[in-house]
């Protein structure tokens, strides 16, 4: 009997393997959300991730099996060979492999291509790839990333792009099937403090505006552009809070000190809902975003957003945020200054943001969409 042909697509008979490289932000949260939702639908879920990822995101607490696979950010002959070997073990008996990010996808494809030589592994197992980020490297690294990206999207049975530009990119590179697969923001937890208490905890003046930026301190987020923009609204005497950690922290701190900017580097925080309660404006200065989690959190919380018009941000926010060109500190700072001077406009944007947020797919809808694609691919196979 052909057991693979006898499989049905009933959710409780599916075994799905989710694969990700080292992640500290949106990708890990998305995979955790998927794992939790799929398990609730009766799917057997295995998550392949580097050591320590489970402590960060709680994949096992979401009901998933955990298989440790060290997928390094860059290629290495020994590390890649070890990772491919572990992936082969994890893929045994899988109905669908769903890789998140290009490195995870490349190694997953290599593991599946050699599957025929290993008992229990099926080379025809569908490979789904979610593209979460644009390739932003330069020089030789950019050329290598492009080669990897092209190979991955052509090898995948389905590419899900977190934003429309990523879908267009996959199609341009030769994907046989590329679709929009929005990444829902997890529900933001309720804050402990109301606006007055949160502002008091920050020692913000009674009428002092609070400008908030949140994200990993990495080149993609371009917090240097935010620092360039601060002098354009400094006459409002704001408290500017930069929340997050990462490799650019020391350089940003040095700039803040040398230029005497009214910016506080708060590092990694777990009380972002309380900080949003205190904020008058949230600023996103990124070079590229798909579906920015902080934008979604801010708009759900009713905080006006000023963002660079990059990647998937315009389709995410519609008319409910202020968008400015990237790499234009005067435009970014001017937009913040104008909002801080106009409380009525801030209130209108807050209302519009809450309304726009009702149009976004939630976690349940995202899981249902992904599950339907798994069913489709298994039936097709």
Automatic annotation (TrEMBL):
| Record's protein name | Glycosyltransferase family 4 protein
Has the keyword Glycosyltransferase been applied to this entry?
Answer: yes
Domain Glycosyl transferase family, which positions? 195-355
| UniProt EC number | 2.4.-.-
Enzyme class of the recorded protein, top EC level: transferase
GO MF entries:
glycosyltransferase activity
Q: Which positions fall inside the Glycosyltransferase subfamily 4-like N-terminal domain?
A: 25-180
For this UniProt record, give its keywords in alphabetical order, as a comma-separated list: Glycosyltransferase, Transferase
């Amino acid at each position: 009997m052909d057991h693979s042909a006898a499989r049905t697509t009933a959710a409780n008979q599916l075994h799905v393997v989710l694969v990700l490289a080292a992640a500290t932000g949106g990708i890990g949260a998305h995979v955790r959300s998927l794992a939790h939702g799929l398990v609730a639908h009766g799917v057997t879920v295995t998550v392949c991730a580097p050591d320590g990822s489970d402590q960060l995101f709680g994949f096992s607490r979401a009901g998933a099996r955990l298989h440790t696979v060290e997928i390094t950010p860059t290629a290495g002959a020994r590390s890649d060979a070890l990772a491919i070997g572990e992936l082969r073990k994890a893929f045994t008996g899988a109905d669908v492999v769903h890789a998140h990010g290009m490195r995870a996808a490349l190694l997953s494809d290599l593991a599946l291509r050699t599957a025929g030589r290993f008992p229990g592994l099926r080379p025809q197992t569908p490979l789904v790839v979610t593209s979460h980020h644009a390739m932003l490297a330069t020089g030789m690294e950019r050329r290598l990333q492009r080669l990897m990206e092209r190979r991955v999207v052509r090898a995948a049975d389905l590419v899900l792009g977190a934003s429309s530009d990523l879908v267009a990119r996959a199609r341009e590179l030769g994907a046989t099937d590329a679709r929009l697969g929005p990444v829902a923001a997890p529900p933001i937890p309720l804050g402990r403090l109301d606006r007055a208490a949160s502002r008091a905890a920050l020692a913000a003046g009674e009428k002092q505006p609070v400008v908030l930026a949140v994200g990993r301190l990495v080149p993609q987020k371009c917090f240097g552009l935010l620092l360039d923009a601060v002098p354009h609204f400094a006459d409002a005497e704001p408290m500017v809070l930069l929340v997050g950690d990462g490799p650019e922290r020391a350089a940003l701190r040095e700039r803040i000190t040398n230029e005497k900017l009214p910016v506080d580097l708060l590092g990694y925080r777990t009380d972002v809902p309380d900080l949003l309660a205190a904020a008058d404006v949230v600023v996103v200065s990124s070079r590229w975003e798909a579906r920015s989690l902080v934008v979604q959190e801010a708009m759900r919380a009713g905080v006006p957003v000023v963002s660079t018009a990059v990647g998937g941000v315009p389709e995410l926010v519609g008319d409910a945020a202020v968008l400015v060109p990237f790499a234009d500190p005067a435009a970014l700072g001017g937009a913040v200054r104008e909002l801080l001077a106009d409380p009525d406009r801030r209130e209108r944007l807050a209302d519009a943001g809450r309304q726009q947020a009702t149009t976004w797919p939630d976690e349940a809808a995202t899981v249902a969409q992904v599950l339907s694609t798994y069913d489709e691919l298994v039936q097709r196979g």
